[in-house]
Predict the structure.
Amino acid sequence: SQELEQSPQSLIVQEGKNLTINCTSSKTLYGLYWYKQKYGEGLIFLMMLQKGGEEKSHEKITAKLDEKKQQSSLHITASQPSHAGIYLCGAKGDYNQGGKLIFGQGTELSVKP
Amino acid sequence: NAGVMQNPRHLVRRRGQEARLRCSPMKGHSHVYWYRQLPEEGLKFMVYLQKENIIDESGMPKERFSAEFPKEGPSILRIQQVVRGDSAAYFCASSHPGGRETQYFGPGTRLLVL
């Protein structure tokens, strides 16, 4: 079965600094989703990547999917306290698996003012 | 446009009681998914439904758990005879039909079993 591994597990950065979170899959990715979860709340959809080499940006967050479609990175530029939370990558690894999403264990981000 | 709605947000049950968790999908969405987040564990898929049909229940525990999504009304996740190990956050997501559609999540129901 497919597994997603995120690194680092936790991250503390100073406000204004850049950071990167990685998500590595044991199998080829068919759709990679990034979500953000604030403690005690639901998941907020950030971005979805499907094609090898694809890159998407929203405000100060950029997500990339590598050419081999087994690794994705999430990059935050000039971090702010509002970026704090748990970042989760989710994937539909098997083309025939339909709607089921498999998630990484999450990366907890803290931003110090 | 209202997002995915779940209720109750918090639910306390004693061992042996039943828990009913409700999920109303986003407007226009006909597919619903349930996930469970156990303490210190990641988010795990439980079941995928469309109206009046279970598409994938590969993540559902074999006993005591059931899910439905009737023609009218919200999707229901039902847990019978709850045990302490059922304490977790239960999230519902919804999407348009199609395996590649983005899933949008509700705020979750936090179940505590005493």
